[in-house]
Write a structure and sequence with these properties.
Blueprint (H helix, E strand, L loop, with lengths): L1 H12 L3 H4 L7 H11 L12 H17 L9 E8 L2 E15 L10 E7 L5 E2 L2 E2 L3 H17 L8 E7 L7 H12 L4 E7 L9 E5 L7 H7 L7 E4 L11 E4 L3 H6 L4 E5 L18 H20 L1 H13 L24 E3 L6
Parallel strand pairs: 3-6, 3-7, 7-11, 8-9, 10-12
Antiparallel strand pairs: 1-2, 2-6, 4-5, 8-11
Length: 351
């Protein structure tokens, strides 16, 4: 009954998506161009720790500058080190790029929306360049276009944009980002994670997260979706079967473990995943443009409705329900991509 009452209150307080987005538009052609550049051969697959990844960062930083994103320190670069469970003696390094549009009052305080997309990929595979157009030039491209669209200060709340490194080998950049923002004392009200947005034969886009935070379901449904995209809520619980629970599959996992509500927008696995055929020309461009508009509408919508999310999350925390989903605190999972309850596990996240 508590959940039904809460859902009703959320529905009554929702600001329609069309009303939120009426003053701002996103340039989807710009997003296409970002994806083309980031997935070009001269980026050589954007492997973490290489000059190719540095080239991608240089491009992203240029777009941050053009979008007017502010930095928390002297630069958007957020260097970090990490170790992988497979070789704990080896220290590796990565670099996130973190910028933000301040709240309407000019402040850099919460509640804040954190938009994430990883820019790294796997470099070469089997002697060929794996350009990662979908994974994840597409997510970064949509994020950059969204940051640019909000350059005029249309947002009400602080919105943080983070291009994350070292996702492919264990979501390391996301873990560092969450710790970094916590250290700054920023209230992270919602993570919107973008990972693989450009290829689906059925024009379906998954929106995961509401299984763990049921109050998000009505909000996700309220986001305006253009023709050419069908939203599928799910992929966030064991009932989706083998490899169907993506709770720990991408950078939103770090927010999940910190108890921060999250929404993961992404497509299902396809034949080009982690393959040399994940190329810009192979992507479904019309679908990607519609998806870019969708995730931008989500950012603008949640900016307008963020206080409702904050209040619903506080109420859910104060009165936990058995229907709220599984315990999020456990890291005990067997090695491999999939554990016994069907979750897809990103390599490096096994322990």
């Amino acid at each position: 009954m508590r959940q039904l009452i809460l859902s009703g209150l959320i529905a009554a307080s929702i600001v329609p998506a069309s009303a939120c987005a009426q003053d701002v538009e996103i340039d989807t052609n710009m997003a296409l161009e970002h994806m083309r550049v980031l997935a070009a051969d001269d980026m050589n697959g954007r492997l973490t720790g290489t000059e190719d990844a540095a080239m991608a960062r240089e491009y992203i930083a240029g777009e941050y500058f053009m979008a007017g994103l502010l930095a928390f320190e002297e630069t958007w670069d957020q260097p970090f080190t990490y170790r992988r469970p497979q070789n704990a003696d080896l220290e590796l390094s990565g670099i996130n790029l973190v910028g933000y549009h301040p709240a309407a009052d000019g402040s850099a305080s919460g509640p804040a929306i954190v938009v994430t997309a990883h820019y790294d990929h796997i470099g070469n595979c089997n002697g060929q360049i794996c350009n990662g157009a979908d994974d994840n030039a597409s997510g970064v491209a949509a994020m950059l276009a969204a940051a640019s669209a909000l350059a005029n200060g249309a947002n009400e709340h602080m919105i943080i944009f983070a291009a994350l490194d070292a996702e492919e080998n264990g979501l390391n950049g996301a873990r560092e980002l969450v710790e970094y923002l916590q250290g700054l004392g920023i209230e992270m009200a919602l993570n919107i994670n973008l990972d693989m947005l450009a290829f689906n034969e059925d024009n379906e886009l998954a929106a995961a997260g509401a299984f763990h935070h049921p109050f998000l379901r009505a909000h996700i449904d309220a986001v305006e979706v253009p023709d050419g995209v069908t939203i599928i809520q799910g992929y966030d619980s064991p009932e989706w079967g083998p490899n169907g629970d993506w709770t720990f599959s991408s950078d939103h996992a770090a927010f999940h473990r910190a108890g921060i509500p999250w929404i993961y927008y992404g497509v299902d696995f396809h034949p080009h995943y982690h393959s040399h055929t994940d190329e810009f020309d192979v992507m479904h461009h019309d679908f990607f443009e519609a998806v870019t508009e969708t995730v931008f509408n989500a950012i603008v919508y949640f900016d307008a409705n963020l206080q409702s999310v904050v209040e619903a999350h506080a109420e859910a925390d104060a009165a936990p329900s058995p229907s709220a989903g599984p315990d999020t605190s456990s890291d005990a999972r067997p090695a491999g991509y999939t554990n016994e309850d069907g979750r897809y596990i990103k390599p490096g996240m096994e322990n």
